[in-house]
Amino acid sequence: MTEIAGRPDALREAADTMRAVRDRCVWTQQIDHRALVPYLVEESAELIDAVEEGSRAELREELGDLLWQVLFHAEIASRDPDDPFDIDDVARGLTDKMVRRHPHVFGDAVATTPEEVLVHWNAAKAAEKSERTSVLDGVSERMPSLALAQKLIGKAAQVDVPTPRSLSEERRDETKRAAPTSEAALGDALLKLVTTARANGWDAERALRERLRKLEEEIRSAERTPADLEG
């Protein structure tokens, strides 16, 4: 057992356990990255449930289950014949990235507000992703539609693409319903929209997805240069 300063290294022990399972468990041996994805999705959802509704013990357990998924993927990757990497490579890459993105912690930069921290983070990220040509690069379309909508609205603001104004920004008559003033009220408003969709035979998920595809097209159009359009 690996030890750090006289104490067992629990993370190393977990990685070693994963390696042993991969070596000796016939079910685990036949799993690849793609086959593991449904389990990753399931464990992520269970962790969210634990964060929002569970006990401390459940949170600890679900964090462990998600960590197992990371170790599993890393162990599969370590045996790739062409481009292997292991959990140590993953950890080193993560550490290097977090140090770069926190120059106010590990360097001479100064950040006294969350907004200033975000400026440093975005600057470091932009330098790392300099090969990207669109603000949409790196945005996963597999995100839940509401989360994707929130993400794309933020991206649209970066390229000055107009998006529908929130209810709080619209001029309203006194007879109009006030905008939601809390997340709970927002949940009620969203549920009412879905209820309306169901009553009309509409697919709420599809409706939002189709609108988001249109927003993506608007963002990409705004990013094109005249030279791109002429070509």
UniProtKB/TrEMBL annotation:
Domain NTP pyrophosphohydrolase MazG-like as annotated: residue spans: 33-106
Region (Disordered): 159-181
Domain of life: Bacteria
InterPro entries: MazG-like_dom, NTP-PPase_MazG-like_N, NTP_PyrPHydrolase_MazG
Transmembrane intervals: none
Comp. bias (Basic and acidic residues): 167-177
Signal peptide: none
Entries under NCBIfam families matching the protein: mazG
Record-given protein name: MazG family protein
Source organism of this protein record: Microbacterium salsuginis
